[in-house]
Amino acid sequence: MDSDIIIKLNKVNFYYGQSRALTDITMNFRKNKVSALIGPSGCGKSTLLRLLNRMNDLIDGTRVEGEILFEEKNIYAQNVDPVEIRRKIGMVFQKPNPFPKTIYNNISYGPKLTGIGVEDMDTLVEQSLKRAVLWDEVKDILNKSAMNLSGGQQQRLCIARALAMKPDILLMDEPTSALDPISTAKIEELIEELKKNYTIIIVTHNMQQAARISDETAFFYLGNLVEYNKTEKIFTNPDVKHTEDYITGRFG
Amino acid sequence: MNRHTKEIIIKYVFFTFSLVSIVVLGLIVFSLFREGLPIFGKVSVKDFLLGMEWYPTYDPPSFGIFPLIIGSLIVTIMATSIAVPLGVMAAIYISEIAPQGIKEILKSVIELLAGLPSVVLGFFGMVVVAPWLQDTFDLPTGLNIINASMILAIMAIPTISSISEDALYAVPREFKEASYALGATKFETITRVIIPSALSGISTAVMLGMARAIGETMVVLMVAGGAAAIPEGLFDSVRPMPASIAAEMGEAPFRSAHYQALFAIGIVLFFLTLAFNLIADYVSHKFRQIGSGTL
Amino acid sequence: MENIMKSFKNNSMQWRYFKQSIFFGAVRLSAFIIALALGGILFYIIVNGIGAISWDFITKPPTDSMTKGGIMPAILGTIYLTIGAIAVGLPLGIVSAIYLTEYARQGKVIRLIKVGINCLAGVPSVVFGLFGLGFFVIFLKFGSSILSGSLTLGFLILPTIIGASEEALKSVPQTFREASLSLGVSKWQTIYRIVLPNALPGILTGSILGIGRAAGETAPIMFTAAAYFTAKLPGSIFDEVMALPYHIYVLATAGTNIEATRPIQFGTVLVLVAVVLSIDLIAIIIRSYMRKNKRW
Q1: In the Cβ-directed half-sphere of C133, how many Cα atoms lie within 13 Å?
Q2: ipTM of the predicted structure?
Q3: CATH number, domain at A166?
Q4: Closest CB from C4, C122, C135 relative to B182
Q5: Residue B176's domain is classified under what CATH number?
């Protein structure tokens, strides 16, 4: 059972300056599963996600307490280089954010600069785009600017860009909130496909989405983890009344 | 060398470079003091600042810069009183009223005006404005306070106008909309909502415009007339501090009392403009605009 | 609010619109006066200066105690000094701005640096001249030379370049940085590969405005670089040079025959204005082009 766990949070508190954004979070994320983080705006779900690859380091005046173990090692330990962590834990953002470069260079950017020793870049680019189910649409325009793609295509490009680093985990921060329903459906299909090879942790404010794609769901409220369970259980018969109220739309 | 060390080295190298501005500021003080302070072995600070007679080449010389300080202050105040209304009103026009096309043109006009070299404006004041003033008002010379103030105002307008415009522009849209929604006219909205909320930015603009005018050299050198005496009227000539430095440094023997006195004027000028800038900085931070305003 | 409500009751609509139209008239007039000042000055300089401009004027040195001949050494001197100022100010300014926007965290030191930059921006040009004289010419013994003048001008435009660069760097969307960092690319590589290339056009256009200023300054080079007259062209960076702004000042105030050389003076003014304003105009045009084509 334990070998199944890839990330382990142990009594994590997080502060923006004086105010506490996360309180005493203890939870485990399991390998090759899709875990969804849900809850009303400002509940701390995005903050938690950004803790996992140390993106919150970029914000002035933040502080972390407790430990987050990734493959048994605390990623907030003194000697850990956040850059190393981010190579293994990829991220896809709320708004598609391709670089103003060509499609090809968007994908090759990470592998090239991090010197992970790619023998055949063309193959890696093709592979990554195929995994993100974008290859057929862009294979003839690889040297065109990524800015010309549609929003949904851009987001899949960003997923491909993250996949090119061959991460163990993919963090997704409301990846479909800026997209139309058709693009959203495509991304959801893609997530279904990706979980065979990757661990996916996704923040979403769309409860149907969480129900459709995730294996496990965590419900956050005011910086607290209220309930963390199998998705099926959360959506049919949650243990906590509060969760049920939220899911059935009684507040939030 | 691993990447982490490299990153840290880069960061500290960049940090060191970012200190250059402070270092230069320090070196300016160092150089001015080194060359200028010795004068105070010969003249007391009080006699230097408040002395009424500036006869640096007489025998014995006298180094009283009070007339020069008065000269600087009077042209600065005059120039500011011309430049502030024009600059601020133009900023209001650009940010609140002008249609898009005119707005772009006016912004370029102000930028180009800022780009005009001071020597060119000085030249213009000398060969165009001065003869005109002289003829029109039947004066002994057209190189006087009025002329210098007008030309200085042209130099200060771009500073005042562009900073005011930023301040006006930064007033949150919601404020304006709230005012319009109450049935206020555009004029009422501008005078009672927009200008009050941009006031700290506009004050900063005025301070910086004054600092610009007080430190400006070529204009006052070429246009103010150069009389080192307390003026009795606005058509009199004056010799502001920067003009004295620029005009006399070429003739003052190296490390003579005169040379040192000119550096000492530099010290006075430096600290005067520093004070203006620090006040402007204080105002813009202390009374930081509400909303997205940053200066 | 109470004030507004009260005035609404007291003032009839006509009165309110009357006040408004007076006010609008006044602000329009202000803008018009400023535009007229620029237009008038430029017009006057062009009309009076154009007659002096010829190929010889631009390519020949002055003759007959600077009452005849051209201004080539002064043009060349201004070009040297401007290039020197760029070489000093641009790298220092860009690096400072990168530190301030990308690395620095809010704190006392940063606040101090920013105040320092603002104060440096406010130092009068003649004080820069004294600083150049006291420090580069005398203390470092560079003499009155291209080197001293370039360093003085370089530090003079440093705050402008820092300001322009900071603004350009800040306008690069934070999401670009996040995307790059989230791939495990280091901070420096992110800056070098993503932030800088996207900020560079903005940095350059902003800096060009500072560079135009350097080309037109007189007081800072009076005691540090500019020669009243030199027959020979500079051989090294330790030589004095003639420069357009200083040449204008000299001709207009200390020439051998001020009235007789008026046409040459106007010609020189026109050349200087053309140089400086075309530098500025290039920046303005590039910037408006960039705004239209901005993709984020």
Answers
A1: 28
A2: 0.90
A3: 3.40.50.300
A4: C4
A5: 1.10.3720.10
């279904």: which residue's tokens? A192
Q: Is residue C29 part of a domain?
A: no
Tell if the CB–CB gap between C124 and B273 is shorter than 8 Å.
yes
Q: In a mutagenesis test of the C interface, which of B126, B187, B202, B214 is the best target, namely the one with the most C β-carbons within 10 Å?
A: B187
Tell me the Ramachandran region of residue B107: left when phi exceeds 0, alpha when psi lies from -120 to 50, beta otherwise.
Answer: alpha
Give the one of A61, A86, A95 whose C-beta lies nearest to C182's C-beta. A86
Q: What distance in Å separates the CA atoms of residue A4 and residue A123, rounded to the nearest whole number? A: 31
Contacts of B196 in chain C (CB under 8 A): none
- Choose the weakest-confidence range: B47-56, B271-280, C61-70, C184-193: C61-70
Instruction: Report the alpha-carbon distance of residue B236 to residue C44 in Å, rounded.
Output: 26
Of the pLDDT bands very low, low, confident and very high (cuts 50, 70, 90), residue A179 is confident
pLDDT digits (tens, 9 = 90+) for A232-252: 999 998 999 889 888 887 665
Q: Which chain C residues are Cβ-neighbours of B17 within 8 angstroms?
A: 92, 95-96, 99
Residue B24 within a domain: yes
Query: Domain span at residue A138?
Result: 2-247
- Pairwise CB contact (< 8 Å): A58 & C179: no
Tell me which residues of chain A, numbers 78 to 117, contact chain B at a CB-CB cutoff of 8 Å.
81, 83
Q: Is residue C248 part of a domain?
A: yes
Question: Please, are residues A227 and A221 in contact by the beta-carbon 8 Å criterion?
Answer: no
Closest CA relative to residue C138, chosen from A13, B260, A252? B260
Model confidence at C230: pLDDT above 80 = no
User: How far apart are alpha carbons C274 and A224 in whole angstroms?
Assistant: 66
Selection from C105, C91, C98 nearest residue C194 by Cα = C98
What confidence score (pLDDT) does residue B295 get? 37
C132 assigned to some structural domain: yes
* Nearest chain B residue to C4, by CA: B184
Decide if B249 and C223 are in contact by the 8 Å CB cutoff.
yes
Who's near C96: CB < 8 A, 6+ residues apart?
B14, B17, B18, B20, B21, C117, C158, C162, C165
Q: Chain A interface, mutation test: which of C183, C188, C294, most A Cβ atoms within 10 Å?
A: C183
Cross-chain CB nearest to C295 (options A85, A100, A110): A100
C199 lies in some domain:
yes
Radius of gyration of chain A (CA): 18
Domain that holds residue B120: 3-286
Regions of chain B with pLDDT less than 50: 291-295
- In this predicted structure, what is the pLDDT of residue A159? 94
| Nearest neighbour of A60 by CB, restricted to C106, C180, C189 | C106
Q: In angstroms, rounded to a whole number, what is the distance separating the alpha carbons of residues C126 and B221?
A: 11
On whether residue A252 sits in a domain, the answer given is: no
Sort out which chain C residues have CB atoms less than 8 A from B90's CB and list them: 27, 30-31, 34
Give the residue with greater pLDDT, B253 vs C289. Answer: B253
Percent over 90 (pLDDT), chain C: 58
Classify residue B294: in a domain, yes or no: no
- Nearest Cα residue to C94 out of C178, C210, C173: C210
- B132 CB contacts (<8 Å, ≥6 apart)? B142
* Peptide bond between residue B172 and the one before it cis (omega within 30 degrees of 0): no
